[in-house]
Design goal:
Helix content: 40-55%
Radius of gyration: 31 Å
CATH architecture of the largest domain: 3-Layer(aba) Sandwich
Strand order of the largest sheet: 6-7-4-3-2-5-8
CATH topology of the largest domain: Rossmann fold
CATH class of the largest domain: Alpha Beta
Structural class: alpha/beta
CATH superfamily of the largest domain: P-loop containing nucleotide triphosphate hydrolases
Largest sheet: 7 strands, mixed
Strand content: 15-25%
Bound molecules: adenosine-5'-diphosphate, magnesium ion
Number of strands: 22
Number of helices: 25
Distance between the termini: 15 Å
């Protein structure tokens, strides 16, 4: 992949240590704020600016304002020996007055070199008033007069991290910007002209050289252009991947309905109107010759599983096989258990292909999958593995797919001839974001819940009231309730998450004794399963303390209380999913969101939404509005693309245009072979759309 990247981009994809002044120590800090390669510095946009062009005389310099002063260095007063708390002071002056420069923990020789007595220097920083006298603590810049041009400018202000100095980062970005090549234009010339946008290279230069506050706005021509480039690369990548998937002809799975009839007869309920409608949409796709690529969105508990089964049976009725893939082993197992009685009623064979299955047992099972004796296979990503072959895979159903990449999804589909793909997600992805993740995938929505579900009573409780809360939990335990206690998610470190969960576990054990168990991500799969099974069993433990392993859909119908600690640290979509775990068995559920006070306004607003509604789509839209797209859905785990330059809320219109643009490109120039196509390849490399580039290469 590296070798095929246009050479013009090589400098940009070199490690940031190739930037002058960035050694391995600074590289680590820069990587934390921007990334590991030069190109990441280009995407690190200023969030503000400092105007250093204001050059008053000392006597006129207003306190609180950033000024650049031309001064004569008059005297140094170092602190008394071994008294580090007294600062080093340097007195400077001009014709109008004096100013003291103040340095804490300074090196004497450094200051003597920077500020020789009797010389003229330019100093830039914020003017302070101390005892009625002007002073400047740690000037941002100190230069001799002949370097005035270097500092008398509008300086961009970048998001920072501890230990990194603004000067160093500014220099690094400037050096990176200097490395930007002039690339062939990939945008449609007419569109570019209509928008009045600069070339890519000028845009990169402009965003890093703001002249006024207005230049920081995401709607400036330069920023809009870069946002559009990013969105176009995303949409083009999706369009190409999809094109490749659709190129394989699909097959028609009409089915005669005899298996589905048996299952419907065995169900203890009737399908909801929404389930019926969605099944009709899926049925039409499967019956047609085209490949199905459909997304099924349905809130937690909306009944996706039975929809998946009925769709799989349509393939089986036509003599093909089907696969159902879940994001975790526990979920795969649970799907298998839920479905087995129903497939047994239909007289077909369903098997769980566990990653843990070893040796002869595994080989035997795989042989039966390969020969077609197993009609429905349920598993995790283990179903991708090269040693698993299907006799004839007709339909792949992928549950909770936002945890899988687009690429994996297609890999599974590639195991069959024209395999239909149905992706199911419980995450209520806002329409705007859905476009970035799924492009033009067909979407079905289960927007009606099965009857009989009671609303979950959601309450916000301050952590100050932890003792009361534990007492309430204790009462609930003695009346036979099953309770989830979810511990805070701190993304940086799984170990810290674990420590927090363990601490809470021991704390609860003191009050609740044997009725508490702990489940966490570091446990071996078998231990996890055993703990979950114990919690599920009627006589088993009543309180399950967990890190977020239970987040994705484990079904314990008797659970009625969901308590989330430090709820303010979770994404709303996650909270919504967690809440969906309770009140499933016909008993009313309660959700306690414990927060650490004081809450910010935004945090308060977010948690209030949780309290006020159970509509997952509404929650997702509000979350997007309040936080911006980057953080919605706990993006890190979601597999949804993260944008550096585009802001989905602000650039929503550009996203729609980018989608249309991408479709047109792929229709006219599917191999990106024209001159514009070649330029677009560069765009894909620039934004590291590796999967899409791979589809181009494999043809
Ligand atoms: P999801 O996977 O969408 O979160 P499930 O498929 O697990 O939801 O369904 C949640 C619960 O609702 C299950 O216990 C299921 O048996 C039940 N269910 C599904 N469809 C219906 C229906 N039409 N009427 C009543 N109950 C249903
Ligand atoms: Mg489910």
């Amino acid at each position: 992949m590296t070798s095929l990247r246009p050479t013009a981009l090589n400098q940009l994809f070199a490690p940031i240590t190739t930037v002058p002044g960035i050694g391995s120590r600074l590289a680590k800090l820069v990587a934390r704020v921007a990334g590991e390669r030069v190109v990441n510095l280009l995407w690190h946009l200023p969030t503000g600016l400092i105007d250093r062009r204001y050059t008053p005389k000392i006597g006129d310099a207003p306190p609180g304002r950033i000024c650049t002063l031309t001064v004569e260095v008059l005297a140094h007063s170092p602190p008394p020996p071994r008294n580090r708390r007294v600062p080093y002071r340097v007195t400077c002056g001009d014709a109008t007055g004096r100013i003291t420069l103040v340095f804490f923990h300074a090196k004497d020789d450094y200051l003597e070199r920077m500020l020789p007595v009797g010389e003229t220097r330019l100093i830039s920083g914020k003017i302070e008033l101390f005892d009625g006298r002007r002073q400047m603590t740690h000037p941002d810049h100190i230069v001799p007069p002949d370097q005035a041009h270097q500092i008398m400018r509008v300086e961009p202000v970048y998001p920072m991290t501890e230990g990194l100095s603004p000067k160093v980062l500014d220099k690094a970005v400037t050096a990176a910007v200097a490395k930007t090549p002039d690339l062939a234009e990939w945008l449609d010339p007419a569109y570019l002209a209509r928008q009045g946008w600069p070339t890519w290279q000028s845009a990169v230069r402009a965003v890093h050289a703001p002249k006024s506050e207005a230049d920081i706005s995401p709607l400036t021509p330069a920023r809009a252009r870069l946002a559009y480039d990013e969105l176009l690369s995303n949409q083009l990548a999706l369009a190409l991947t999809r094109l490749k998937a659709r190129k394989r002809r699909g097959r028609s799975f009409a089915g005669d309905g005899h298996l589905r009839a048996k299952v419907l007869a065995a169900l203890p309920y009737k399908l909801t109107g929404a389930q019926q409608r969605v099944l009709d949409e899926i049925g039409a796709d499967m019956a047609s010759d085209d490949r199905m690529l459909r997304l099924l969105q349905g809130d937690v508990g909306s009944g996706k599983t039975v929809v998946a089964l009925l769709a799989m049976l349509a393939a089986v009725e036509s003599g093909a096989q089907a696969a159902l893939m879940a994001p975790t082993e526990i979920l795969a197992q649970q799907h298998a258990e839920t479905l087995r009685p129903l497939t047994a009623a239909a007289g077909i064979r369903l098997e769980l292909i566990s990653g843990r299955l070893k040796g002869a047992a595994r080989e035997g099972l795989l042989a039966d999958v390969a020969s077609g004796q197993v009609q429905i296979a349920v598993g995790t990503h283990a179903l991708f593995q090269k040693d698993i072959e299907f006799a004839d895979l007709g339909l792949a159903v992928i549950d909770e797919q936002h945890r899988f990449g687009v690429h994996q999804r297609l890999e599974l589909a590639a195991k069959g001839r024209g395999t239909d793909v149905l992706v199911m997600t419980a995450t209520p992805i806002p329409r705007t974001l859905a476009l970035t993740a799924y492009g033009d995938m067909d979407v079905s929505r289960l927007d009606e819940k099965p009857p009989g579900r009671k609303p979950v009573d959601t309450r916000l409780v301050s952590l100050d009231r932890l003792d009361e809360t534990v007492a309430a939990i204790q009462r609930a335990v003695s009346s036979g309730a099953k309770i989830y206690w979810v511990c805070p998610l701190i993304e940086e470190s799984e170990l810290i998450d674990l420590a927090a969960a363990e601490e809470r576990f021991h704390h609860l054990q003191q009050t609740l004794g044997e009725s508490v168990i702990l489940v966490h991500g570091r446990m071996k799969a078998a231990e996890k399963d055993a703990a979950m099974a114990a919690f599920q069993s009627p006589g088993g433990p009543s309180v399950l303390v967990a890190t977020t392993v239970i987040e994705v859909g484990v079904d314990v119908p008797d659970a009625t209380i969901m308590l989330v600690e430090h709820a303010e640290r979770f994404g709303l979509a996650q909270l919504h999913q967690l809440r969906g775990r309770v009140g499933r068995g016909g008993k009313a559920g309660t959700c306690l969101l414990l927060y650490a006070p004081p809450l910010t306004e935004t945090a308060k607003a977010r948690l209030s939404i949780m309290r006020d509604t159970e509509d997952g789509f509404l929650i997702a839209e509000e979350d997007l509005r309040l936080r911006g797209s980057g953080e919605v859905l706990g993006t890190r785990q979601s597999g949804l693309p993260m944008f550096r330059l585009a802001d989905i809320m602000v650039h929503a219109e550009l996203l729609a245009t980018a989608r249309d643009d991408a479709r047109l490109i792929v229709n006219r120039d599917p191999d990106l072979a024209t001159p514009r196509g070649q330029a677009l390849r560069t765009l894909l490399y620039l934004f590291e759309q590796d999967d899409a580039i791979r589809t181009l290469r494999s043809g």
